[in-house]
Design a protein that fits this description.
The longest helix is centred in the last third of the chain and has 29 residues, at about 385-415. Helices cover about 40% and strands about 15% of the residues. It has helices spanning about 10-20, 40-45, 120-125, 140-155, 155-160, 175-185, 210-215, 230, 265-275, 280-285, 295-300, 315-325, 330-335, 340-350, 360-375, 385-415, 425-430; strands at about 70-80, 85-95, 100-105, 130, 135-140, 165-170, 190-195, 205, 220-225, 240, 250-255. The protein has 2 domains: about 10-285, 3-Layer(aba) Sandwich (Rossmann fold), CATH 3.40.50.1820; about 295-430, no CATH class. The N and C termini lie far apart (about 55 Å). Helix 1 runs antiparallel to helix 9 (about 265-275).
């Protein structure tokens, strides 16, 4: 039986993509720094299907859903990068079954801002931690954007305080900011829901559980493709909310492509959730071979340089992520927190090599293959010093960042709604101490 206090996957995904209409001239496919007019946004969010089309001809209007009688109450601006202000989201209110609901929507990154040095991207790249009250340390770029949008949101403070349910929704950068918004209101309101698509990591190792506690795990709906590069970057000590594969609302989906920004596109998430229920979305997780057991048997042949290890290939990096996941099942931290190959390497550098020596032959073999992929001359176990592992980590992060940068170039030419992710600069800085 449907839970009327929860947005459906279709509703949440439409809110996530239609929040982009708050950016000036998004409707004209010429987005710039600024805020779109209230009437234009209202038409796109609540109008008929033809009015609510996005760049990919995806229907983003709330018409035809239980949210169609919503009232758009305010449009919010926020600062990203070097203080550039632009439309960043909206608040809407609706009633259902005698219950008062408020939606707070926040958009993802946009690289083109009136010819300036992409301010949204600078926000994403600012990976230094900063305090978020009782929750501990969080990503400072996301916290700065949160600080700038909060006064706008508080124009609806009485509406929010009197709501029975508060829904916070966002994609990419918007998902990260929505996480902080949900945690902020969750401390004083007992029914705050969070829905994110392709969100980067927000809190540090010691903070993610406090953020979960403020919102409550059962109120968090985290959707991510398993090879979405934005969700893979910003390695240890950053950790996702609901990081464990066993978390009921950690809804990791099979990616439509190998590592690439197509996996991060909001239109791909809309296609993935379709008209499914949340239970239907959860079941998709079963299609992913998380531990890569079958893949490992096929690919870990023991050859010095098997055919699939193509140097600098993005497809090979995708396979390495899958295979590292299989090898990591022996490490409790990585298994429980759903960390990746990049996290493992960062943690090894951060903590020293003592853990690595206890993992076994399979991981050494993967490190050897990864070194071949990266063009690093390290083929024996004894060769894997902290310096070699640091080089490998840098190469993996640089490749992931390249995917995002390539997407930005594509956006400039084609105006596709894709976004850039998070750098691993924090851990690379920490690594220089070793």
């Amino acid at each position: 039986m449907p839970n009327n206090d929860v947005l459906t996957p279709q509703e949440a995904s439409r809110v996530a993509i239609n929040s982009y209409f708050t950016l000036k001239d998004w409707i004209k496919k010429e987005p710039t720094a600024g805020v779109e007019s209230f009437n234009n946004i209202s038409t796109q969010v609540l109008g008929d299907a033809s009015a609510g089309k996005s760049y990919h001809d995806v229907t983003s209007t709330l018409k035809g859903t239980k949210l169609e009688n919503s009232n758009l109450t305010n449009v919010h601006s926020a600062q990203t990068g070097f203080g550039v202000t632009s439309g960043f989201g909206y608040t809407a209110a609706y009633e259902g079954n005698g219950r008062k609901h408020v939606i707070i929507a926040t958009r993802g990154t946009r690289p083109e801002m009136s010819g300036m040095v992409a301010p949204d991207i600078i926000t994403d790249l600012n990976g230094v931690g900063t305090s978020f009250g009782d929750c501990g340390m969080v990503h400072s770029g996301f916290k700065r954007t949160f600080d700038s949008i909060l006064p706008n949101i508080l124009r609806d403070s009485s509406l929010i305080q009197n709501a029975d349910v508060i829904h916070c929704v966002g994609h990419s950068l918007g998902g990260a900011v929505a996480t902080l918004i949900a945690a902020h209101f969750g401390k004083a309101h007992n029914n705050v829901k969070l829905y994110t698509f392709g969100s980067p990591r927000v809190g540090w190792f010691s903070s993610y559980s406090a953020i979960e506690g403020a919102i409550k795990p059962e109120n968090i709906y985290r959707v991510a493709h398993d090879l979405d590069p934005v969700t893979l970057l910003a390695p240890f000590p950053y950790v996702h909310v609901l990081p464990s594969r066993g978390d009921n609302n950690n809804m990791t989906l099979p990616s439509p492509n190998f590592l690439g920004m197509a996996n991060h596109d909001m239109a791909a998430y809309i296609a993935a959730v379709g008209n499914l229920t949340w239970d239907g979305v959860r079941r998709k997780k079963s299609q992913i071979d998380f531990e890569g057991a079958l893949l490992s048997r096929v690919l870990l042949s023991g050859n010095e340089n098997p055919g699939w290890v193509a140097r600098a290939s993005v497809n090979t990096l995708s396979l390495l992520f899958k295979l590292f996941s299989h090898a990591l099942k022996a490490i409790s931290t990585s298994l429980i927190l759903g960390l990746t190959a990049v996290d493992l390497l960062a943690e090894i550098i951060y903590k020293g090599l003592h853990k690595l020596k206890q993992i076994g032959e399979a991981l050494w073999q993967l490190l050897k293959y990864a070194a071949i992929w990266a063009g690093i001359k390290a083929v024996e176990i004894a060769d894997f010093t902290a310096g070699i592992i640091r080089q490998l980590l840098k190469k993996m992060l640089a490749t992931l960042q390249m995917l995002a940068t390539t997407a930005v170039d594509s956006v400039t030419r084609n105006i596709n709604p894709v976004t850039i992710g998070i750098t691993g600069g924090l851990m690379l800085t920490a690594a220089t101490a070793f």
